Amino acid sequence: MTAHHLLPARIQLLQELAHTYGTPLYVYDMPQIARNFTAFKQAFSGRKSLICYALKANSNLSVLRLLAELGSGADCVSIGEVRRALLAGIPAYKIIFSGVGKRDDEIKQALELGILFINVESFEELKRVEAIAKELAQELESKDQKLESSKDSLQKARISIRVNPNIDPKTHPYISTGLHENKFGVDMDSAKQMYLYAHKSAFLEPIGIHFHIGSQLTELEPLTQAARKIADLARSLLALGINLRFFDIGGGLGIRYEDEVPIDLYDYAQGILGTLSGCDWTIVCEPGRRIVGDSGLLLTRVISQKHTESKRFVIVDAGMNDLMRPALYGAFHQPILLGYAEENSALGSHSGDFVDSMVFNKNAPSVASSQATGFAMRNRGFQGGGEGIYLGDNEQAPAAESTIYRAKPTPKPSKAESSSEQPMPKADIVGPVCESSDTFCKNIALPPLHNGALLGFENAGAYGYSMASTYNARMRPAEVGIYADGARLIKSRESFEASVADELALLDSSK
Ligand code: LLP
To answer: Where does the record place a coiled coil (predicted)?
Structure first.
């Protein structure tokens, strides 16, 4: 969820949700997820296509149910994800199973479930899939189950091969996958050998070809370059009598966290389709972040504040265990101020939340004033007006119209102006986890806040909750979906009792 979705009623709702369910709290804009999915579908609408949402970005069952209802397939990287997809109503024939390290038992279950295909990552894995398919066929025969249909689906494992095109996707090295130095996929020559092998096997059916060169991509060229290379390979296979049906272009499309310019979906589809002329393959794509990323907001409250000689720290109740991306990738999630302090909060002396929202830019000047001079309205899609408000330490929160601001990269103020302006103190927003990397933003211009103030980190819908952990024995947050007809809890906060129940039982049983 980004600030431009935050109309006054929405801000008030977020305050209520934080009050009802506590913080930290993940909140998702469900219609936004639906719009993002539909945009993908439309981009490829002139062509046979299957959008397989990548569950790793966010696998909450309510998110998956929504996508299932819109016709989504699923890209899964563990049998747990396959089971989640099925539970949410995504049919097996729309599920693909990818990942560089699949266990035998996972492959076996995937074959038994009759998913669409397995994306194979090495010759060794191909032979394991073949051996498992053979075992299953023999098991079935020995059980004397002669039903032709089930025999067919079990005997031949439908596979696709992940080809590594050795193309630099120009993204963060941790999420770059398309170079030979990365552990993913096989080179073009090995892929050819694998297809020839699979083609001759009685237990393998090669039906697709796959590539995925990285995540949070903002340049189209590496993607079309990869597609061209892989399409050429698929055409050369056709000449060898291997007729594939699915061209799987992976995921990876970036979103705007800060100032990135996302790839236009229409350009993306046209760019890819332009490499496939004369071929009738069904396009499979595996978007994750682009479907859910901008739908999510992580709500958190200020616990405490700390001033050292050189630094100001604003300590919030979300930590790197809740949202790991800043600590792991140095990622930036725009913080927005949604309320000053909770009503009747023991934490703050302030008279209550007010309906206002401010967005802070990490490049912001450290100047603000009680007039509007320090802020520019953040107006991507936001209709309305209002003045920037400096929240002085003891200032009564004004009954302002809801407005959304970001600090403006202003030119230097004139002497006359600057004399009336107070510097807006910069702060690091940090979590409570015992690691220095538990830092959300550094040196961000932030007005003085009361403890209890409500903040939100934007664009937390992808790889937020799904990468959360219980590090420091911190319970994972609750998740709420905002639907057109209201907000609903879609996952409860983990309880301490549930988290220790198993260990306690085992502890007692060992006495
Ligand atoms: N398909 C494959 C084979 C993948 O490896 C991935 C992501 C996707 C699809 C979905 O990519 P997306 O459309 O979401 O970019 N935790 C990192 C991102 C890791 C992505 C891993 N693979 C982050 O928070 O940025």
So the answer is: 123-157
Whether the predicted pLDDT of 149 surpasses 90: no
Instruction: Determine the distance separating the centroid of ligand 1 and the alpha carbon of 438, expressed in angstroms.
Output: 22
Ligand 1 atom 7 nearest Cα: 215
Task: Report the pLDDT value the prediction gives residue 7, as an integer from 0 to 100.
Answer: 75
Indicate the range of 22-31, 352-361, 449-458 predicted with least confidence: 352-361
Which residue has the least CA distance to atom 22 on ligand 1? Answer: 215
* Active-site position among 52, 76, 434, 441: 434
**Residue ranges covered by each domain of the chain:** 1-22+296-341+424-460+462-510, 30-141+153-288
Whether 203 has a pLDDT exceeding 50, the answer reads: yes
Give the residues surrounding ligand 1 with Cβ less than 6 Å away.
54, 56-57, 75, 98, 175, 212, 215-216, 250-253, 286-290, 325, 329, 462-463, 467
For ligand 1, mutation pick of 215, 329, 333 (most atoms within 8 Å of CB):
215
**Helix (H/G/I), strand (E/B), else coil: 297:** strand
Q: What is the model's pTM?
A: 0.87
CATH fold match for the domains 1-22+296-341+424-460+462-510 and 30-141+153-288: no
Model confidence pLDDT, tens digit, residues 451-499: 999 999 999 999 999 999 999 999 999 999 999 999 999 999 999 999 9
Q: How far is the CA of 184 from the centre of ligand 1 (A)?
A: 12
Q: What is the CATH number of domain 30-141+153-288?
A: 3.20.20.10
Would you call 434 a catalytic residue per the annotation?
A: yes
Distance, CA 457 to ligand 1 centroid (Å)?
Answer: 20
The CA 251 to ligand 1 mean position distance, Å, reads 7
Pick the CATH number of 1-22+296-341+424-460+462-510 from 3.40.50.10190, 3.40.50.11740, 3.40.50.300, 2.40.37.10: 2.40.37.10
Q: Which long-range contacts (CB under 8 A, 24 or more apart) does 431-434 make?
A: 431/315, 431/316, 431/317, 431/318, 431/319, 431/320, 431/321, 431/322, 432/303, 432/315, 432/316, 432/317, 432/319, 432/472, 432/474, 433/319, 433/320, 433/321, 433/471, 433/472, 433/474, 434/472
Task: Tell me the C-alpha distance between 335 and 358, whole Å.
Answer: 9
Give, for ligand 1, the residue of 36, 53, 55, 56 to mutate: max count of ligand atoms closer than 8 Å to Cβ: 56
* Rg of the chain over all Cα atoms, to the nearest angstrom: 26
The 10 Å Cβ neighbour count of residue 174 is 11
